[in-house]
C-alpha cells in the first residue's frame, strides 16, 4: 500500500488495551487510568478482522501493543487467530511488552504463533526501576527476558527510553548487554507527548549521546531504506545497538506504519491528533478504514516547530 508521498505502508501497530500493570512516569498519570467500559474497547473479533483487512491491502507486519498487551483477556487466542494470516501474506507478528508477565506467557505466545517481542526496560537498577515504573519489580522483568529467550521469541529487542538525569549513566551497561547475548538494545529519544510534554529540556537527550559515551560502536551497513533504527555493534559482540531518533534525526520520509488505539482510533501519525474512528465504518469496510488512514498520513511530524502542540493522548492510550 503506497501513501500520498510514495511511502510503502506495510506495518500496522494495534493496541489491544490502554491498561497496564505499571505506571511509567512518562507514559501514564500517577493515579493510573480509569478502566473503559467494555463497549469502548475493541473486541477480540474486531481486532482479528482489522488484521485480516490489513493483510488484504498489503500489510506485512503487525505488532500488538498496549498499555500492556498481556493484561488483555484473550490475548493468546488473539495471537493464534492473527498468526493464521501468515498463510495469506503476513510475514511478522510481534508484541511490545514490559516483560513482567512473560515468565507466565512466553511459551504459550510462541506456540500460538508470535514471532518475537520488544521488551521495554529503562534501567538496570532495581531502585530506579521501581521509581520510574511507580512500583515495578526489575527481577520479574529480567525473568521475563529469560523466558522469552527460552521460548524462542527472538531476536529480542530491548527498548530503552533515554532520559537525561535518570538513565544516561547506564548507557554503557545497556550497550554491554549485547556483548554476549543476541539482543538488539534500542535507545529511543524521549518524546514530548502526554505526561512528558512539559518535562524539563534537560531530560531530552539525542541519540548521539550514545555514540559519545560509547565511541567504539561500529555502524552497520544498511540495505535499502534506513528505517527507524540506525544500527551499530561493539567489536565481536553477538548483539546490536539501535538508535531511534524521532526528534533529532526524524525518519518520516521512511515511515511505513500506522497505529490503531485500543478504543478503535486509527492514527496516521504518532505526533498528530488526527484520528479516524472505526465506528464511522461498517465492519465490511475495514479495508477502506485502513486505506483512508494511510492516505491521511502527513509528510512529516512537526515536533520541532515552535508552535507545535503536543498530542493529547498518553502513550498508554496510543500504543507504543
From TrEMBL:
[4Fe-4S] cluster 1 binds at residues 20, 24, 27. GTP binds at residues 13, 63, 96, 157, 257-259. Pathway: Cofactor biosynthesis; molybdopterin biosynthesis. It comes from the Bacteria. Pfam families: Mob_synth_C, Radical_SAM. Coiled coil: none annotated. CDD domains: Radical_SAM, Twitch_MoaA. Catalyzes the cyclization of GTP to (8S)-3',8-cyclo-7,8-dihydroguanosine 5'-triphosphate. This is GTP 3',8-cyclase. The lineage of its organism: Bacteria, Bacillati, Bacillota, Clostridia, Eubacteriales. The gene is moaA.
Amino acid at each position: 500500500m503506497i501513501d500520498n508521498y510514495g511511502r510503502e505502508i506495510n506495518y500496522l501497530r494495534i493496541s489491544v488495551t490502554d491498561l497496564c500493570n505499571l505506571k511509567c512516569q512518562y507514559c501514564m498519570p500517577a493515579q493510573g487510568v480509569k478502566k473503559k467500559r467494555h463497549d469502548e474497547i475493541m473486541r477480540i473479533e474486531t481486532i482479528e478482522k482489522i488484521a485480516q483487512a490489513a493483510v488484504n491491502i498489503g500489510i506485512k507486519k503487525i505488532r500488538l501493543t498496549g498499555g500492556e498487551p498481556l493484561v488483555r483477556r484473550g490475548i493468546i487466542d488473539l495471537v493464534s487467530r492473527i498468526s493464521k494470516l501468515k498463510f495469506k501474506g503476513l510475514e511478522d507478528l510481534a508484541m511490545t511488552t514490559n516483560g513482567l508477565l512473560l515468565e507466565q506467557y512466553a511459551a504459550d505466545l510462541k506456540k500460538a504463533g508470535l514471532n518475537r517481542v520488544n521488551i521495554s526496560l529503562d534501567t538496570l537498577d532495581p531502585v530506579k526501576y521501581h521509581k520510574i515504573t511507580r512500583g515495578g519489580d526489575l527481577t520479574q522483568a529480567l525473568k521475563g527476558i529469560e523466558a522469552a529467550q527460552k521460548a524462542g521469541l527472538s531476536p529480542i529487542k530491548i527498548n530503552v527510553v533515554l532520559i537525561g538525569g535518570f538513565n544516561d549513566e547506564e548507557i554503557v551497561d545497556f550497550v554491554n548487554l549485547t556483548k554476549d547475548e543476541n539482543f538488539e538494545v534500542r535507545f529511543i529519544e524521549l518524546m514530548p507527548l502526554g505526561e512528558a510534554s512539559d518535562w524539563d529540556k534537560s531530560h531530552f537527550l539525542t541519540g548521539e549521546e550514545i555514540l559519545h559515551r560509547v565511541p567504539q560502536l561500529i555502524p552497520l551497513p544498511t540495505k535499502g531504506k534506513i528505517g527507524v533504527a540506525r544500527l551499530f555493534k561493539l567489536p565481536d559482540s553477538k548483539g546490536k545497538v539501535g538508535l531511534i531518533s524521532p526528534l533529532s534525526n526524524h525518519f518520516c520520509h521512511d515511515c511505513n506504519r500506522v497505529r490503531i488505539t485500543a478504543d478503535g482510533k486509527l492514527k496516521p501519525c504518532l505526533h498528530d491528533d488526527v484520528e479516524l474512528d472505526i465506528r464511522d465504518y461498517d465492519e465490511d469496510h475495514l479495508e477502506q478504514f485502513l486505506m483512508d488512514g494511510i492516505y491521511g498520513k502527513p509528510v512529516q511530524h512537526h515536533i520541532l516547530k515552535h508552535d507545535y502542540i503536543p498530542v493529547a493522548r498518553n502513550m498508554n492510550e496510543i500504543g507504543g
